[in-house]
Amino acid sequence: MIKMATRIGTLEDIPDDFGPNYLKCELSLRKKQKAKAFVSGCYLEKLSITLEHGEKVHLRGEIYPSQRKLENRHVVDVDISPLNKCIVDAYCSCKQGQSGTCSHTLAVVSAIEQWKIAGYKEVPALLSSTSIPQQWDKPRGPKVKAEPASYMIFASPTNIGRKRKPIMAQFTDNRKVKLMNDHIQDLQLLTSSPISYLVEEIDENTPTVETPLGNQVVGSGLAYHAPLMQLVHAVRNETGCGNLSLPVDRALNEEIHVLLQQYAQHWQDLGLSSDESRELERSTRLQASSKNWFSERQKRVTASNFGAVMNRKKDINDAFMKNTFFRSQFVSKATTYGHINERTAKITYINKTGTHLHDVGLIVNSKFPFLGASPDAIVCENGKVGLVEVKCPYSARNLSLDEILNGNVPNFFLKKVGGSVALEKKHSYFFQVQGQLLVSGLQFCDFVVYINDNIYIERIEPDESIMNSLLRKLCIFYCEHFKAYSQNQSKK
């Protein structure tokens, strides 16, 4: 492992009272409104935190331009001094960014503040709609989803008691009604009415409300037509995130412990301490965009291939090794479909469950470093941490789950078990999930299947007997086949 002067930081490295007040300057109303729009509109991406020599926290994020998202994103850099509780330096690549107080910089600061209030320990990758500021004042995006004609219900319009209400056009007349003098006189007679203040003479006894623009009369448009990103002093939520430092230690039975000690000399070159394995996971969270992720995976048997080894009946040969572990990258309709729809599946998942997700890198357990796992995400649910594995099967893209289970997709990995649906226990995906739980040490994995704009979610918990079988077979496989073949491939 390469030792760096800096390390990847977390939200826990930032003071709890962090917010726009750290900028130590007056911020205009316009900047506050634009910053709020950037945060609520999810314009902020790729936010990273770096702790430099334990004295300074560096933030870097990218924000889409407010005009056209096709333009180059603005890069924001912010340096925080936790000791002095201030921002010591800030810069943005926009035209006003040299001052360090542009709306993009304020958006980064405000986003961090929101996550601290929510109790998050690390920067979330995706948030559920309930975790993002309200969007009711914007046009609705999702449209009425298409469905097969066989699902449509035809009924008489006079049938009010139908189970499924039809889609009906609605009209609201918003034309201004002229207010007559006699109406005002009638209102003035209602001295005890809650709305009588609307026609009263304004004096020192007129009720007012404090606003960013000073005290305004209750009911005035100025009292509520200027939404701002105010300084928040809410109590921090302590259950937003659980322990995101992976892997978590998992106890092994005596038989497996003896087996690992017996073969330990075969993976001495892969040996990692607990701290080094956690640092490896943090440094590879970009996964396919990280060179280190590729290089470290090539040295290990990874969870996506556990099933191929476990289900192998024939002898291990060069063709199997090459096609399973060292084949060149390829693009097909199925892989493209899965890549495009994975993010959509995650968004559907978090909106359905009300949770939030974090990116995750290559997980390697120091007890058996010859294995690795790269789940699709980490989920935080009421302080508990689990894995998420997403599948977007191309063969089922235009079918419903019922049609799939009725046999329209041969050898599909979901089966009916009694009155419920479950992942096939002998399928390679099941070994993949159990392997991810084994390596990570976490207590559950949500297996998410994206089918025709809908998702199926199955919570899978660790199966100790399966995990022991994985360790037995994969330990011998690595020592007798994988290590030598991998070393020969690296020399070519």
What does this structure look like?
By secondary structure, this protein is α+β, with helices and mostly antiparallel strands. It folds into two domains: 124 residues, no CATH class; 238 residues, Lambda Exonuclease, Chain A, CATH 3.90.320. The chain has twelve helices and 17 strands. The strands form five sheets. Strands 6-10-12-13-16-17 form a six-stranded mixed sheet, sandwiched between helices. A hairpin with a 3-residue loop joins strand 2 and strand 3. Helix 1 packs across helix 2 and helix 4 packs parallel to helix 12. About 1% of the residues have low confidence.
What's a quick, concise take on this entry?
The chain is an alpha+beta fold and 492 residues long.
Strand order, main sheet: write it out: 6-10-12-13-16-17
Basic shape: globular
CATH architecture of the largest domain: Alpha-Beta Complex
Counted beta strands: 17
CATH fold-level topology of the largest domain: Lambda Exonuclease, Chain A
Largest pleated sheet = 6 strands, mixed
The overall number of domains is 2
